[in-house]
């Protein structure tokens, strides 16, 4: 008899109706990833607020022709050294959560970037921790 292995799936649960547009999630994301561009976006249009973040659906990994996007732990991760900047993942992403960012590789000037659920923090998303209104929470499946 084989032992049943429980596989925990984590994703961000977003309720834009609770968001006040403070952008604390964007700020902590940039700080955690030591970046000038966040991996979560708060988009304000008048009184309406939308939060764009990766929902870990995996479509990007399926379409990546060079295998730069793989499932690692709780999240689909983009390996920047393998990304060729073809933008296939960018175009297929249903939540608009993939951004093309400058690369330091002279042969490949742009690469894809997206939320990694704070992989380096043990897949404990910092954006959910700083969200005072609970517009961003962590959902386990």
Model description:
With 141 residues, this protein is an alpha+beta fold. It has one domain (8-138). The protein is built from four helices and eight strands, in the order βαββαββαββαβ. The chain has helices at residues 24-32, 59-63, 88-92, 126-130; strands at residues 10-14, 41-45, 48-52, 69-72, 75-78, 99-105, 108-113, 136-140. Strands 1-8 form a two-stranded antiparallel ribbon. The longest helix has 9 residues, at 24-32. It is globular, with a radius of gyration of 16 Å. It starts with 9 loop residues before the first strand and ends with a strand. This is 4Fe-4S ferredoxin-type domain-containing protein. Residues 10-40, 45-73, 74-103 form the 4Fe-4S ferredoxin-type domain. Pfam families: Fer4, Fer4_4. GO terms for molecular function: 4 iron, 4 sulfur cluster binding; metal ion binding.
Secondary-structure element pattern, one letter each: EHEEHEEHEEHE
Please give the largest β-sheet.
2 strands, antiparallel
Bin the strand percentage.
25-35%
What is the rounded Rg? 16 Å
In helices, the fraction of residues equals: 10-25%
Q: Give the uncertain stretches in residue-range form.
A: none
Integer count of domains? 1
Protein name: 4Fe-4S ferredoxin-type domain-containing protein
Organism: Thermodesulfobacterium commune DSM 2178
GO molecular function: 4 iron, 4 sulfur cluster binding; metal ion binding
Domain 4Fe-4S ferredoxin-type: 10-40, 45-73, 74-103
